[in-house]
């Protein structure tokens, strides 16, 4: 029996941007899903979307309103799971795409979660610490009805961190009347956070990067690395590559680009960014004014670790890297994917490359439930094993089906999600 469907109004106007990219990725994988393709529409529409108004009183006595979202894309395999982004360009379409990529990622690395994501359209740098806290708490109260340790578990993303997670956990707990540490992950260690969580996404990027380098016959020692986005993901990945003997020759953030032929001192750059908010003005390298030149960096490994659609038809042509490790979510458009494929560039897709964060979030959630905490070595060992296994099984599937790693990861993930969907059946 076929499934009849109409396109909901909020989806019809979202065919472009990150959500459009995601839909195209699903279309590309559908021919490989066999009989499960009957259920593929499940992947193309979020299960639940909540749009909330987030009003706060500013320090000067005026009232400001921000638009917030929480999207639960799919919960067939478990509770929703995914980060919260505070950024001036956040849109519903972007959060929908990010939530859908979480569904695919969680299934690709086989952690028992569905996919979700949240965000507020705000530049948090324009808020005082008090305003930031009030906004975070009001947003949490507004989405309180759909989150919970067994329902949907937020985590950090762009411009959110351990402090934001602590406020979210506290706000949710105050509404519940008891401390619910498992409602968010990426918390401070003192509140039930996990050792190794802060570094987990960057570490995962490094682990799959080493696997990819072996496949391409590239020695990490001496390899040239370029990183876009020098925050949690890009900063840690750059540090680990540098510690392994690679040369980080270019770093770009939202303000500037710094380069150094002999390799930047990554630790000094991290300290500089912590103190100054950006790489701009760093004396240990040369600043280049033309941002587009970053993509043409002569490098072996390129790590986009900032925002979506950075590698597009304009930038893809200029890329000289042999390997791209997608630290960011959705950094490469489908058209750019094709260009890079023709150039023989190996892309380790976001849904594998940056899955280290959600993997250790899963460890954190498990530790919170049992109130029993693991050592950092245990965390890193388990993380490394899961990342390597995911990379290897996706690599093997890609060879077997003669498809890209992205398509292979999507085949594996969609199969798991849609099998769960089929086994559960439709209610009623
Ligand atoms: P972050 O806020 O810690 O850092 C973001 C970095 O990107 C900053 O260095 C910022 O300057 C830079 N940036 C922002 N806009 C830019 C632009 N237009 N051009 C160049 N650089 C720009 O965020 P993060 O947690 O490191 O997240 C980065 C990416 O990784 C996002 O795509 C996020 O969804 C993804 N990701 C994060 C995690 C996690 O655990 N934090 C997990 C998986 C994926």
What is the secondary structure topology, with strand pairs?
Layout (H helix, E strand, L loop, with lengths): L8 H4 L4 H13 L18 E10 L5 E12 L5 E8 L4 H17 L6 E7 L7 H15 L8 E5 L5 H15 L20 H19 L8 E5 L3 H12 L3 E6 L4 E3 L6 H11 L9 E3 L12 E4 L8 H4 L6 E3 L8 H9 L3 E3 L1 H4 L2 H15 L5 H26 L3 H20 L4
Parallel strand pairs: 3-4, 3-5, 6-7, 6-10, 10-11, 11-12
Antiparallel strand pairs: 1-2, 2-4, 7-8, 8-9
Helix pairs in contact: 2-3, 2-14, 3-14, 4-5, 6-7, 6-12, 6-13, 12-13, 13-14
The chain binds nicotinamide-adenine-dinucleotide.
GO biological process, one term: L-glutamate catabolic process
Pfam families: ELFV_dehydrog (PF00208), ELFV_dehydrog_N (PF02812)
GO molecular function: glutamate dehydrogenase (NAD+) activity; nucleotide binding
